User: What shape does this take?
Amino acid sequence: MTPFYKFQFYLFALMAIGAALLFVTRKSPVSAALWLVNVMFALSGLYVMLDAPFVAAVQVLVYAGAIMVVFVFVVMLLNLGRPDQLPDLREVGARIGAGLVGIALFANLLAVRREVLPVVELAPPSDNVVLPVAESLFTDYLLAFELTSVLLLVAIVGAVLLARKKAVT
Amino acid sequence: MSLHTLLPPLAIDFAAWFPRQDSQVAPESIYTFAVASVIKLLVVFTLYMLGVALLTLAERKVSAWIQDRRGPNRAGPFGILQPVADGIKNLMKEEVRPADADKWLFIVAPMLAFIPAMLTWAVLPLATPLPTPWGLISMSVASLPVGYLFMLAISSLGVYGMVLAGWSSNNKYALLGSLRSSAQMISYEIALGLSTIPILLLAGNVSLNAIIDQQASMGWNVLSLTIAWFIFLVAAFAETNRLPFDLPEAEAELVAGYHTEYSGMKFSLFFIAEYANMATMSGLMAALYFGGWDIPFTSWDNEGPHTVVKTLATLAMFATKTGMFLFLFMWVRWTLPRFRYDQLMTLGWGIMLPLALGYIMVIATATLALDYIGISRGVPFSLSLLVLNLALGAVLLWWGDKGKLLSPASARLGQRELARLRARSAAPASFAMGVPSARVRAVAAARQPNEDDVDAVLAEAELAAAAGRPGDSQ
Assistant: This one.
């Protein structure tokens, strides 16, 4: 790893961790959502460094551009009120539970670190970065891909059905 | 006839001026890359900001021209210094922050509105690569292999600025405006994204350079994918919140929408963001559908060796195309009135989305069929698609223009519609003003516990009118 690469890695990694910490400690739901967007961006930067620009672009497109916009939209529609007037939704039990899960995940990370990870041979650089992804999606992982699409379709139909509840009954 | 025979004195081979052979290959040194990137960043940023400032002037000049006025003509010759005067005014003005506004989000929102529009320019190829003594410099700030996806990802972030501006202002009009804007932008983003899928089907790649190369060899996408371009155009107007889709800041209903509470330079940033978005959308349309920097009717610009003249000529071509779309944006703004919100949503979800989806299927099928027949990817391929587009376009216009969707002022009303309107004016006075208010509807509903109360009353009135005035139905 060149020093430049190392610097970039720690930059994005620290950004992701810092933003994630701020995300769980903010009281205002909108601020929390925005810090989560920041985490997405930092992760996207890490994906670029892993030579996966497609995943990086899709990360921003799907999470920051679509899902989090809907989150912010919903938070605004709920009109929860000013942050200092909000009751703290994070109860003691939930905090302890989240903390335990965090410790378990951290232990998991340490355990993985003891294993020697297999060295993956990088694909040769090509002009078309989407082609390898598309090929494996539509050949090796076709069943998973189709199942996911059916799942999403069911979710969409379900959402429409819920929204039209009055008309149905 | 190619361009260099038309313009012999201009066709100086600047590459020959540089002694080194490697001016035609990309530089290997990381330092050359870094220095070139910094220079490109500074140049593109400066020109972009200058262009956006001049756009605000251009908008006022164009509006004055369309409305037969003179427009700004006091600051400098022909009012050319007006943007400077506006900028100084906005910087000197007092900035007001509402007492209950969310401090940080209120400050961040204008930046978030402006930055995504600017970022997209980082991946647009502005011209053919420039040969220099240090190697061939690509003429986009960062020529990403996923340029198209980057552009989609970044343009999906523009909505944050407006949403947060409205929310953090703690003002109901601002919040309503930002809710409208987010709903509108999310709705049209889908049509916008889907309208660009056929481009990928033809180019087979997500890098913008590949998309432009494909257009240079096969003909521009506006010919082979006309309907996709049309969807993109309409969605671009909605995405930039320009008339006829400027619902988020409809001043008659919402004061000024999401930027009601903003003043001084922060307000100005929203204003700049609007023009920055326009420039970005124009640049994207030029790159995705009008061949980018490609000069039509010649292959002079597409073949090596790269020269400085080629770079300058293609840059001028790209600027011309972008400028044309910018003018179109202004032209439409001063021509068309605003849509109603339900019309906007119906257009977005009910027409644009199915149209874009169906068009993807049509193009995919046509591409497969043409490949199967054995028509090679080239001009004949594009011509076949053009014929298909013309046929589809004719069908669409015929279907669309039944007085139902477009319903221009000149179109004749159908007999049914005419009878319905007459019946409405003959109905009780409370219904005479078009759509009855919620209160009237509630009263009517209370009188007759029927779900279709208004329709029932209207139908009755229709019958009465038809019976009472038999000679009047023409």
